[in-house]
TrEMBL record:
<protein>
    <submittedName>
        <fullName>Unannotated protein</fullName>
    </submittedName>
</protein>
<dbReference type="Pfam" id="PF03641">
    <property type="entry name" value="Lysine_decarbox"/>
</dbReference>
<dbReference type="InterPro" id="IPR031100">
    <property type="entry name" value="LOG_fam"/>
</dbReference>
<dbReference type="GO" id="GO:0016799">
    <property type="term" value="F:hydrolase activity, hydrolyzing N-glycosyl compounds"/>
</dbReference>
<dbReference type="GO" id="GO:0009691">
    <property type="term" value="P:cytokinin biosynthetic process"/>
</dbReference>
<dbReference type="GO" id="GO:0005829">
    <property type="term" value="C:cytosol"/>
</dbReference>
<dbReference type="InterPro" id="IPR005269">
    <property type="entry name" value="LOG"/>
</dbReference>
Length: 164
């Protein structure tokens, strides 16, 4: 949670806003709260089913409620300038794979960066190398997914200028 709070504070300090999955739980909620605490705007995009679980970030400056996860991700993809992935669960993994795949397929050219200070994604990195070695993933695709270990490294890899 401390990592997420530091990411949110850095977003706000750079004059950026946050587009998130619109939840209040876990890393997602911590990033949003810290972004707002630092004066940065937040946009939450959440499916109605999660609103019904009472996990919606009603403090977001804009909360967009969608019918399902596919609509949610489409809106998030369109509204974001870059994608920064922090350690998380299966939803995080699924979203990371989707934005990386769409980047490789030239559906967008936005940076896809993984912040992995504790090597939570170490096995995934090995799997990606294996796919590359087996010829299932091109080297160009591997290069489009940027792995970082520190917040400074991750934000540099995003390649977005500071607004402040």
């Amino acid at each position: 949670m401390e990592l997420a709070a530091q990411v949110g504070s850095t977003i706000a300090a750079r004059g950026w806003g946050l587009v998130s999955g619109g939840g209040t739980q876990s890393m997602m909620g911590a990033v949003a709260r810290a972004t707002r605490a630092g004066g940065g705007p937040t946009i939450g995009v959440i499916p109605q089913a999660l609103v019904d679980y009472e996990v919606a970030d009603h403090d977001a400056q804009e909360l967009i409620v969608t019918t399902d996860m596919r609509e949610r991700k489409g809106i998030m993809d369109a509204r974001a300038d870059a994608f920064l992935c922090l350690p998380g669960g299966i939803g995080t993994l699924e979203e990371l794979m989707e934005v990386w795949t769409s980047r490789h397929l030239r559906m967008h050219d936005k940076p896809v960066v993984v912040l992995d200070p504790w090597e939570d994604f170490a096995l995934l990195r090995e799997q990606v190398k294996h796919w590359r070695d087996m010829g299932f993933v091109h080297e160009h695709a591997v290069e489009q997914l940027v792995w970082t270990k520190s917040i400074d490294e991750a934000f540099a890899a995003l390649g977005i200028p500071e607004l402040n």
